[in-house]
Amino acid sequence: MRKQQQAKGKRAKWLAAIFLASTLLVVVLDLAGTRRQGESEARNQAAGLSELLEERLSSGLRETSLILKSASDSTLVQLLLNKHMLSQEQEQRIDLQMHGKLRQMPYLKQIDILDSSCYLLYSSQKHSPSSQLKTDYCRWYHRNGAQDSSFTSTRSEQGQDGIVLVQKLLNQDDEAIGMVVGVLDRHFFQAEVAKLPVGRFGEILVLDQRQMLQASWPAQAGRMDQPLNELQSTEVLDRHDNYLQFRARSILDQEMRLYSSRLMEGFPFRVVVGIAERDFTRAYNDKATLAVLAWLFTAGLTMLTLRNHLASIRQNRLLSTSAARIRESEELARLTLDTAPVALLLVATDTLRILRANAPAREMLQLPAAPQRADGQTAMLDLPLQLAPVCDWLRSGEIVANREAELERADQSKLWAIVSVELMPQQQIPAALIALYDISERKALENELEEKNRLLNEMAITDPLTRLSNRRHADQTLKEELQRCERYSQPMSVAVFDIDHFKQFNDSFGHQAGDNVLLAVANAAVDCTRSTDVCARIGGEEFLVIFPCTRLRDAEKVMARVQQVLAGTVFPFTDEKVTFSGGITAWRPGDTPSGMLSRADKLLYQAKMAGRDLMLSDGNPD
Fold first, then answer.
1. For the ranges 1-5, 391-395, 480-484, which has the lowest average pLDDT?
2. Mean pLDDT of all residues in 415-427
3. Same-domain status, 170 and 80
4. H or E element in which residue 259 lies
5. Are residues 53 and 123 in the same domain?
């Protein structure tokens, strides 16, 4: 009989393990396929968007180049390059022609004509200087000769920033006699970038050949015309001559994305489109969460079923081999439990199930009464013990004697009790006797008393409005610090100050406004001082700061920072700035608390007489 029960238990364990492993494998394979599909779609989206953006930007730049190239067909331009001067009527005609070309491209904001020496002969911007220019395209013009007919770069000058497109102007003999320069507003790039849908956390960058940021989404106004380090790819996914697809963390916001990078054909720019992993993995994460929860629920049900089945097999085996001995001791255990004045439980240590419980225990743990058997005897409860940390003690076989512990019941309610756990030897069913004495009311009173004592101690040394130290605590601290200075010859400084014209705030705006000013001064003092310094309110608007182990010049710097912070504080009820005046003094051998405070008060008075908003010191005693 016993071997058959053991065989049933092993078979149930194997079946449960195989079932859980197979369902987990199905979940993992399905999630892996979903992740691959999402990443593939994101890669295709990034590639398509980068190609679309590259085509739009290249098309706009080529259209601008054609507009500039058409300028060489104008006889007035040729005449200007040959004579370097036109009549007033000719100047008006060429100006009309150039402004007509500007209207052909909305983002083209300026056209300049330069001769072969890079002197500016014409500009659609009337305020442009006519001196010789020293620019990158002038250097390009003289360096390349007749090799390249066009040049593109970026310009970042005050009032002149944009994308520069240059076309050489040729005479009838195809000789370069000058160049036409167009300045394209950089908002052309930003407008095209803003049209692309890259998801909530996506990113778009347009960079020039120097890795300068020309446009971005989300907009990075503060990073424009600043060099960006190369994106550090963690995994290259695809590579061609002018195209690269990779996975990397953004250098702007550290977001992990799938990037598609393309060089603009014929122009020194590169577009980078990134699809954030948070965007394309959102559906995967939701599905993974649901799948894991479903599998955990299935596993929980399976384990619960297996546990109940194994427990049933084990319980049947134990009951079949120990029924006689349990019947012999049943009456004795019942009498012992029911007559005890404290809560008593008899618990099986291997199954952690309650066998017996007297009336106080049933009331404490909210257990039902034990059922009656057919022969008139009281049956065992056979209920699970759900009482932490007593269950942990029983599992480890720990013996406990009169230990105070906080217990957690099955409904997660808690109580304090004195607990004793004693193992019951020489029993067919391993069991333990648990005694519980409720001390929750005593613990509540102790906690209440401890909290009240803490509040009283805090109130005794704290100013109720500013939460700074009060006068009594400050005096005691100053006395202790002076003793430490005398003993170890350490430096120390104190500052006494009060708020200028504080009465006017109360009279003009009310006492609440005055309280707000006091709080602002207190917060500024706390923010600018160390945790070891003591800030105290010693009067209505008078404050004291004790600087242990601090020289006078260092204390002066701290009080200057407090003045700066307070000067930057805006009060809604007035446009005036809140200032304070005071005095700072350092410890001298033989000093007393009253002596140091008296010196600081005199300096405070002198600061008031000198016009207020001053912190005076008596010089470094060293």
1. 1-5
2. 80
3. yes
4. strand 256-263
5. yes
Sequence-distant (6+) residues with CB within 8 A of 305 are 16
Within a domain: 449: no
Helix ranges, 340-466 (H)? 359-365, 390-396, 440-461
Q: What is the pLDDT of residues 271-290, one digit of tens each?
A: 999 888 888 888 778 888 88
Q: What is d(CA 346, CA 380) in angstroms, rounded to the nearest whole number? A: 10
Rounded to whole angstroms, what are the CA distances from 18 to 41, 312, 398, 426?
35, 21, 36, 40
As a whole number of angstroms, the distance between CA 361 and CA 347 comes to: 12
Q: HSE on the CB side for 347, CA within 13 Å?
A: 29
* DSSP structure string for 489-533: ---EEEEEEEETTHHHHHHHH-HHHHHHHHHHHHHHHHHHS-TTS
Report the number of distinct structural domains present in the chain.
Answer: 3
pLDDT value at residue 534: 95
Residues 412 and 473 in one domain: no
Q: How confident is the model at residue 519 (pLDDT cuts 50, 70, 90)?
A: very high
Question: Distance between CA atoms of 546 and 492, rounded to whole angstroms?
Answer: 8
Paired with 400 in beta bridges are: 421
CB contact burial 389-428 (16+ within 10 A = b; e otherwise):
ebeebbeeeeebeeeebebeeeeeeebbbbbbbeebeebe
Please check whether residues 184 and 229 belong to one and the same domain: yes
- Enter the tokens of residue 340: 């005890």
Q: How far is Cα of residue 474 from the mean position of the Cα atoms in its chain? A: 38
Distance, CA of 54 to CA of 261 (rounded, Å)? 10
* 417 CB-side CA count, 13 A: 26
This prediction has a pTM of: 0.45
Task: Write the CATH number for 430.
Answer: 3.30.450.20
Domain identity same for 399 and 501: no
- So what's the pLDDT on residue 185? 83
Helix (H) or strand (E) holding 552: helix 552-567
> Considering the chain, what is the average pLDDT of its residues?
83
pLDDT tens per residue across span 353-378: 888 888 888 888 888 877 777 666 66
Q: Produce one character per residue of 108-125: b if its CB has 16 or more CB atoms within 10 Å, e if not.
A: bbbbbbbbbebebbbbbe
Q: What are phi and psi of 433, to 5 degrees?
A: -100, 125
On whether residue 166 sits in a domain, the answer given is yes
Residues 259 and 341 in one domain: no
| 236 token code pair | 């290259």
First-to-final CA distance of the chain: 97
User: From CA 428, how far away is CA 419, in angstroms rounded?
Assistant: 25
Model pLDDT for residues 300-334, shown as the tens digit of each residue: 888 888 888 888 887 777 766 665 565 566 566 56
Range of the domain at 481: 462-617
pLDDT of residue 427 exceeding 70 = no
Give me the amino acid identity at 489. Answer: S
Rounded CA gap, 148 and 115, in Å? 17
The answer to the question of residue 318 being in a domain is no
- DSSP for 413-441? -EEEEEEEEEEE-S-SS-EEEEEEEE-HH
Same domain, 258 and 336: no
